[in-house]
Amino acid sequence: MLRLSGSVFCVAMALMVTSIGPASAQKARPAAFAQCAGCHATESGKNLFGPSLAGVGGRRAGSLAGYAYSPALKASGLTWNAKTLDRWLTSPKKTVPGTKMPFNGIQDPKSREQVIAYLLTL
Ligand code: HEC
Predict the structure, then answer these.
(1) Which of 2-6, 32-36, 61-65, 96-100 has the lowest mean pLDDT?
(2) What is the rounded distance in angstroms from the CA atom of residue 66 to the CA atom of residue 6?
């Protein structure tokens, strides 16, 4: 039993090392992005309940044509970069009171960082 769980552990470690190794593509989607994918597509022009996140880095908040943003986000004056995304993804409601993004934020700094790094490649 002990030997079995030991080898299962080894396989798990090997999988982890492979998935975070330097060979992994820059665009690899971090696990934490799964919470966003239900509302956000990463293809350009594809808006779901939330706006497409393609090209979000450098974009002015609330500026995508064809998506009905909340007045609050449109008036926020934010431009999306590593810093503003970090605030936004820590607490959307505190960063932009009145936003219609119903998401409480990613509390784990490491996961937040991974999601932001990924967003900036889109
Ligand atoms: C339950 C649905 C939902 C989830 C989950 C969600 N979002 Fe959103 N998101 C929205 C909506 C709706 C908006 C538009 C907000 C507004 O207009 O106030 C939005 C807006 C945004 C914006 C601003 C885009 C722009 O064009 O200005 C970013 C960036 C964003 N979301 C990132 C994320 C990320 C990253 C996650 C996951 C960690 C996430 N969202 C999770 C629904 C969601």
Answers:
(1) 2-6
(2) 53
The amino acid occupying position 45 is G
**Dist. CA 15–CA 31, nearest whole Å:** 14
Structure tokens at 53: 């996140």
The ligand 1 atom at the shortest distance from the C-alpha of residue 80 is 29
* CB burial of residue 111 (10 Å; 0-12, 13-18, 19+): middle
Residues 67, 101 contacting (CB under 8 angstroms)? no
50 lines ligand 1 (CB under 6 A): yes
Residue 107: C-alpha distances to residues 98, 101, 104 (Å): 20, 16, 9
Residue of the CA atom closest to atom 27 of ligand 1:
61
Exposure class string for 21-55: b at 16+ Cβ within 10 A, else e: eeeeeeeebbebbeebeeebbbeeeebeebbbbbe
